[in-house]
Predict the 3D structure of the following.
Amino acid sequence: MSAALEIDRPTTARRIGPKGAPVVGIAHELRKDPLNYFVGLMRDYGEFVDFRIGMAPIIMLNGPDAVKHILQDHYEDYPKSRFCRPFKPILGRSIFTSTGETWLSQRRTASPCFGGARFQFMAERIVGATRKMLDRWDQFDRGGEPVEIVHEMMRLTLDGVTQALLDMDFIENYEEVHDALTVILRETEKRVWSVAPPPDWLALMTRPRYRRAVETIDRVVRGIIDERRRNPRDSGGLLTTLIDAHDAEGSGDEGPLKDQVVAMIATGHESTACALAWTFYMITQHADVRERVYAEVDEVAKRPRYSYFPFGGGPRVCLGNRFAMMEAKIMMAMVIQRYRLSVLPGQEIIAEPMITLRPRNGIQMGLERRSAP
């Protein structure tokens, strides 16, 4: 229920919050344990919290009315801030980082691919991807092997995105993509909260693993685009739509097209995978919740609109919000229907904030069949 807002002009409104250290503000305290630190700020200071990261003044909003004011009622007064800049090496000139008419044009181009007649097609692809994973789990179950649920959900949601949105088969070099995205997310998180983040060129030059990860995603996605050009499909899918829109513009620069596809792949599976992994973990910790999962999903929808906003809100609401909710519900229902999951003992489950909220070392889970496939 919180949102952070960078202030680019003076204001006479009275604000309270931690003073922080000279020059760096609260940067050091924030890096130690960002989740608990932000919860503490909300508890200690209330709905509006004023602080600095470096010399950048920021207000954290902790109420639905204030969040609605920013995201919906007056969104034009609050453009994307400097905190989007560290995403440029991977997301480039995509809808995630663009503004103004460029952003609006990109959104209008992609929007038809997330609804209408495509929705049933996407749901069928999600069901197929989930069934394929569960069939693979049957082999683990017969051998008494556990599954690492974060890895499995990352693989599943990437499969779902590539099949449902891009209308293509599963990305064969999944492990390479997953490892590269992990490196990129961790590096980007550091740069977002840095007092003096290095420029993109310097970050890429001085961090070899980060540079190689960005190059890996670039190579994989350009390969996906090239393959679709060699084997075009008139399917109304997102990949074909983006390629057609780019070609219609007559630009010889493939960069923006590549950036758009990267954005859809990177943002389209990571957050859903993390949400599913945490959901399955929490279900194992609270036996009574197992029977109330779907009732609680309905309950979330009855809260004030901006007390829970995982997809943002207003005109900039996540383009794939309906797809992500549909995807998560189908995947969760199919897994719960077939398997009862249990967390293997001896693990320390640690939340790692890195743009999304991943379990740092994964979660090993045992499988117990509940129903026949």
User: Anything to note?
Assistant: The CA atoms of residues 327 and 336 lie 14 Å apart. The longest strand covers residues 48-53.
